[in-house]
Amino acid sequence: MARIGIQLMMLKDHVAEQGVTPVLTRVRDLGFHTVEVSQIPMTEDNVVSLERAREDLGIRYAAISGSIARTSSAYGLREDLDEHIAHARRLGTDKIRIGIMPLSALRDEESFRAFTREVDDLARRAADQGISLSYHNHHIEFAKVDGTTILDRIREQAPHLRFEIDCHWVTRGGYDAERTLKAFDGVLDLVHLKDFRIAPVPLGVLDGTEDLLEFWERSIVQFAEVGQGNLDWRPVIEQGIASGASDLLIEQDRTYGRDIYDSLAISREHLVELGYRDLIEA
To answer: By C-alpha distance, which of 181, 151, 76, 63 is closest to 118?
Structure first.
């Protein structure tokens, strides 16, 4: 059965300030039990706390995250695949997701093919150990090269790779979320439930004290709580489940002054109204 949970990235600052356990306790108290781990340093202390939350709070982990290359603050799949797999197993998940491609892969055709070869090899090696490696899209992957989107080129050139489709970024890339989920039937592991909102024109633009062009080009499209934007969520969720997603994760990159816990509560309420309480509480 598919489950609905949240992306822990939204609470990374809270984790940094308070630690893993208080944050996941608040998440559990909001009525969520499934979490995707991203942008949380996988230090031994944090991993131990995440493990304990499985036992003490009933938290389930949909996936953990990894970048291709190691950074000063995070393991890299290239150098540390075994460590990622060990962390996944400790947290009881069989999924790792890549949040974004290295932008250097877009430099030229040779760089792109080097990226797809490497990510396909990583996905194959992970699959050999029972772990699914998924790629998470943004809008940039809907740019076309010789008539084919970058996302489709990744899929074609990395046949062992699975996918996490982010509905907001699909929409911002000019595509339809439901149709995209259908197109990825059979290779879809995860879905991001992230709404797409067109912001109301602010008073400052109307009275001339704020720049219209700045708003028009940079601020008119917003992230939104599920149900507070323009996406029709029932067919999107149903298609995500039909296409094989095991987990659908609420994510909101910015809340524009609203407390993130309040935003999560609003998203949860809308999904409950649509009839998905059982998937949230599973």
So the answer is: 76
Strand stretches in the chain, DSSP E: 3-7, 34-36, 60-65, 95-98, 132-136, 144-145, 148-149, 162-166, 188-193, 195-198, 221-224, 247-250
What is the rounded distance in angstroms from the CA atom of residue 123 to the CA atom of residue 134?
Answer: 8
| pLDDT tens for each residue of 1-41 | 999 999 999 999 999 999 999 999 999 999 999 999 999 99
Annotated domain spans of the chain: 3-281
The pTM of this model reads 0.96
Q: Radius of gyration (Cα) for the chain, nearest Å? A: 19
User: Strands 148-149 and 144-145: what pairing?
Assistant: antiparallel
**Rounded Cα–Cα distance for residues 34 and 257 (Å):** 25
| Residue that the structure tokens 């296409």 belong to | 243
Q: Is the domain covering 3-281 a CATH 3.20.20.150 domain?
A: yes
